[in-house]
Amino acid sequence: MIRAATRRLNNPESTMPMQALRCGCSHHPLHCIIPPYMLETMAESADAAVRKTAVAAIEVSAQARTLRSTMQEMPAMAALMSPSGKKNRQVYDGQHLGQSSMPGVLVRGEGQPKVADVAVNEAYDHSGRTYDFFNTVFARNSLDGQGMTLVSSVHLGHNINNAFWNGRQMMYGDGDGHAFLRFTRSLDVVGHELTHGVIAHECNLRYQGQSGALNEHFADVFGILVRQWRLKQSAKKADWLIGRELLGPAATKARGLRDFGPGKAYEDDPAIGTDPQPKHMQSLYTGPGDFGGVHINSGIPNHAFYLFARRLGGPAWQLPGAIWYEAMRKLSANSDFGEMVSTTLMIASDQHGAGSTVHKALQDAWQAVGL
């Protein structure tokens, strides 16, 4: 069952029942883990509880667009520096209020013990693990490379189905308990959203079309690498799913939010519909929805990275991750898939030799997805 909101991606004239609440912040995109087409599908669910929380999540996304736009233009101004210049986490309780009341009440700072609130502890631990990953693997000191404080707010609004990076801090909804559980549960989701902060301080990829799909792709890659690094998983042993820990009891046919592998993360699911991500350029989405398919077409380079990493074997954060990290630093705001291919191949050739096993594996991976 391909749900109406998925079909609507290819029909800009279509509307949803509450058109004024269309998701996605059309003029000023927001980096959310739950894409607009999924929320629109949920807003038409037969389950009244799922519909209600989907509309609330759409409203929250819309409220954040102006701040996100400003912060994207001036990412350095958004950085709150760590007093020590090292890892510094601050986790706030949003107390179920709106974004205008964020960050909320500070409940746990760097080095302080666990508190009774599991969402606070998850946000603290997962942001710390993301910091440790970038610092250990790439010698990067926080998102900006200069010790930016990692600020998180939990309990945003009431049962909000999303988590996002707004250019200054992380915000987490608690989920509705039906389609999704609390959004602090997933390390790869936290890593994904914080990677948007890294991207903003490097190539700052424009959130539209192929450059926007690369933005989402890099966030997916480093989000999943944080988890694999933490679990010490090899590329062949990892499941390559994003967000599996978020799925609630209503998502009965979903394995995750996104799948780097050849299959769909969810199909004909009664709560969230069918995964629209392509794995090959022949199926490239060219419509206006999702800012030109930023969450959709990211599936193509995602699958290429998966093929490359599995071909090499071993830890994906090492050789493949190093090439991708260097590429992220070399690209520019308007880079497209073609530039991504040429840049990664150049890095592989420079670091490992033209025609080397690594270089050939990367060529084959890009060719396998039509690039």
From TrEMBL:
Pfam families: Peptidase_M4, Peptidase_M4_C. GO terms for biological process: proteolysis. The keyword Transport does not apply. One of its GO terms (molecular function) is metal ion binding. The active site is at residues 193, 295. Its cofactor is Zn(2+). This is Neutral metalloproteinase. InterPro entries: Metalloprotease_M4, Peptidase_M4, Peptidase_M4/M1_CTD_sf, Peptidase_M4_C_domain, Peptidase_M4_domain. Residues 204-370 form the Peptidase M4 C-terminal domain. It comes from Pseudaquabacterium pictum. Its EC number is 3.4.24.-. The lineage of its organism: Bacteria, Pseudomonadati, Pseudomonadota, Betaproteobacteria, Burkholderiales. Residues 121-199 form the Peptidase M4 domain.
